[in-house]
Every structure is written in C-alpha cells, then in structure tokens.
Design goal:
CATH architecture: Alpha Horseshoe
CATH topology: Serine Threonine Protein Phosphatase 5, Tetratricopeptide repeat
CATH superfamily: Tetratricopeptide repeat domain
Structural class: mainly alpha
Organism: Streptomyces angustmyceticus
Low-confidence stretches: 1-10, 89-106
Helix content: over 70%
Number of domains: 1
Protein name: Tetratricopeptide repeat protein
Distance between the termini: 52 Å
Length: about 180
C-alpha cells in the first residue's frame, strides 16, 4: 500500500518543506514555523500550485497570533481549494464517490476535497473567535455538508465531533445572551 502511494504521488519538495514547518510548530516553535511558511508562500506566489497554496495557507493559519490573521489565512486556503476544484475540467475529476480518509498525499483534487470540511470548520472557529456567530454557523453548515463526502473513518468522525463541539459552543453563546 505504501508503495502504491509513492507511485501515485511523486516526491514533492514543497510539501516536504511545509511538513518540516508543521513539525516546528507542533514542537512549539510557532514563530519559526510561521517564518518558514511565509517565505515558502512568497516563493510559491499567487499563481502557484493550488494544492500547495491550500495546504500552506491551511497550516499558516494555525501559526497566527491574531484571530483576524488566522481567518485571512483560512480564507486563502479555501479560495485556493475552491479555485482548483472549479477550474478542473469534469473529465479530470476522479470518479470515486467518496474521498479517502484524510487529506494526505493522493491525487491533488481528491486531497483538496478532503480539506473542505476542515477548512469550513476552521473558518467557523475563526468567526466564533471574532464574535461573529451567524458567520460561524454558516460555515458549520458547509462543514457538515462537505464532511459527508468523506469515507467513513477516524478523520471523518473526528471532524464530525469537532463540528458538534463548536455547534454546542455557539449554542451556549447564543443562550447566554
């Protein structure tokens, strides 16, 4: 199975560098992760590969200190994913009815589709942090709708649980007003 994945996805230096920055962030070096991702963002540029831009922006959002900046990066990730999916000719779309479990390295279109529930969930959380509950609820609806395209598994269930937790938090905010 591992060999099949390697054949389907050639070695990608950009994704490797994104992964290295993610490891720095998870190890507690948020600033260095942000610096590396920022440099890579400028290297890729606005016309760069949509999968790379989506992945990078998705993780760059997590390194932000200001919720408005986090929202900006999450929106960039969503924009890159939506642009890639809508610009692809129908013949290029995979014929699989379900997206594989998680946004790991596969055909870029399949991987980007697997990002959608997480992207919408992150944007909903950003809006909640900015005290914009109506916008947060709208994104949660999109997250719920897109999570159904995922194959059953831990990734899908984890997203459903996170969606439910944020919904409960938003409901609690509404009840407290």
């Amino acid at each position: 199975m591992v060999d099949e994945r390697r054949e389907a996805t050639p070695e990608d230096g950009v994704l490797t560098r994104i992964g290295q920055a993610i490891m720095l962030h998870r190890a507690g070096d948020r600033e260095e992760a942000r610096n590396r991702l920022s440099a890579l963002w400028h290297e890729i540029g606005p016309q760069g590969d949509a999968f790379h831009r989506c992945t990078l922006a998705h993780y760059m959002a997590d390194t932000q200190d200001d919720p408005r900046d986090e929202l900006d990066w999450d929106l960039r990730a969503l924009e890159a994913a939506e642009g890639f999916v809508t610009e692809r000719p129908p013949a290029a779309a995979p014929q699989e009815p379900r997206v594989a479990d998680g946004p790991g390295p596969r055909h870029p279109l399949v991987a980007l589709r697997a990002f959608f529930p997480s992207l919408h969930l992150n944007i909903a959380a950003d809006y909640a942090a900015l005290d914009r509950p109506a916008d947060a609820r709208a994104q949660l609806r999109r997250a719920r709708a897109s999570v159904n395209a995922l194959a059953d598994g831990e990734y899908r269930q984890g997203l459903r649980d996170a969606i439910d937790r944020l919904q409960l938090r938003l409901d609690g905010i509404a009840g407290a007003r």
